[in-house]
Specification:
Bound molecules: zinc ion
Helix content: 10-25%
Order of helices and strands: EHEEEEEEH
Distance between the termini: 49 Å
Number of helices: 2
Number of domains: 1
Radius of gyration: 21 Å
Number of strands: 7
Largest sheet: 5 strands, mixed
Structural class: mainly beta
Strand order of the largest sheet: 2-3-4-5-6
Shape: elongated
Length: about 160
């Protein structure tokens, strides 16, 4: 469950656990591709000031491509999350703060899942630190050796 009734939260912390399918509507519009379901784990609790603190973790596997040679690869992701849900407009400048609408009846942490996943996926990986990339002229994968093009000066 990623949508928690605040009446439950008044009694104490509530575990938030879910396994989201790669085709879950939550991921619609994100430029990511999950290779397996995303596991969400965490605890949501009332802070006593009318806010709710969520700490949790996302775990999954992304279908990505090396940012230099564009080779397809799978990238395991493990994203720790700390997010504050509040109706207080003074706190809402912080990117890890998510607004709640008054009157607060539920806290839905799925928006934080979506944003944190998008952020993690935007850090494009390399297939290896020494990846030589593609020739800018002929497009050959330089990890397989020189392509035969005349050496070009690297552009900044
Ligand atoms: Zn590469
Ligand atoms: Zn070339």
């Amino acid at each position: 469950m990623l949508r928690i009734d605040v009446r439950e939260l008044r009694k104490g912390p509530v575990a938030t656990q879910a396994v989201l399918s790669p085709s879950d509507p939550l991921f619609e519009g994100l430029a990511i591709s999950l290779a397996e379901p995303l596991a969400v784990d965490g605890t949501l609790e009332a802070t006593g000031r009318g806010d709710f603190f969520w700490h949790g973790r996302l775990q999954g596997l992304l279908d990505t491509a090396c940012r230099r040679c564009l080779k397809d690869m799978s990238t395991p992701i493990e994203v720790p999350i700390e997010a504050l849900f509040t109706a207080d407009p003074d706190l809402q400048d912080d990117p890890s703060v998510y607004p709640l609408l008054e009157p607060v009846s539920h806290v839905d942490v799925s928006e934080a899942v979506r944003e944190e996943l998008a952020l993690a996926a935007s850090q494009f990986p390399l297939c290896k630190d020494s990846c030589a990339g593609l020739c800018q002229r002929c497009g050959a994968d330089l990890n397989n050796g020189p392509c035969g093009c005349p050496a070009s000066k690297a552009k900044p």
